[in-house]
Amino acid sequence: MAQAMGTPPVVAANGFGCVKTQMMVSCKGRFPGVPGTFSASGAHQVNITYETPDLPGNRFSFDSSNGCLMRVSFDRGGRSTEVTVWNAAAISKSFLMPMQQAEASRFCQGK
Predict the structure, then answer these.
(1) Who is most buried in 2, 75, 79, 86, counting CB within 10 A?
(2) Edge-to-edge strands, sheet with 80-86
(3) pLDDT at 2 over 50
(4) Residues 6 or more apart whose Cβ sits within 8 Å of residue 54
(5) pTM score > 0.90 for this model?
(6) Mean per-residue pLDDT for 63-78?
(7) 3-state SS of the chain?
(8) Which whole number is the average pLDDT over 73-81?
(9) Which residues of 48-85 are buried (b: 16+ CB within 10 A; e: fewer)?
């Protein structure tokens, strides 16, 4: 089936399984070191995010359009200090924030 122009792909990766039915995307999976399973559904694309309740802490995010999993680390002041990115091939790399934010995004997209 040909992909509609402008419709993002659906990529299951990094422990998240995703299915697409017509325009609805549903994903389910686990974040590293976080108890429980997370799921979400949406039109064309899904972003699943979990943030630890205390600082210093982490924010985890999964993007169904590229299979990218991110863990952003925050200091006690709530400032992002580092992001670890797992691309769709499950290869990880860490970047300093905010200086290397653009590089992290490119790595996530496989560029």
Answers:
(1) 86
(2) 47-51, 57-63, 68-74, 80-86, 92-96
(3) no
(4) none
(5) no
(6) 94
(7) CCCCCCCCCCCCECCEEEEEECCEEEEEECCCCCCCCEEEEEECCCEEEEECCCCCEEEEEEECCCCEEEEEEECCCCCEEEEEEECCCCCEEEEECCCCHHHHHHHHCCC
(8) 94
(9) beeeeeeeeebbbbbbbbbbbbbbbbbeeeeeeebbbb
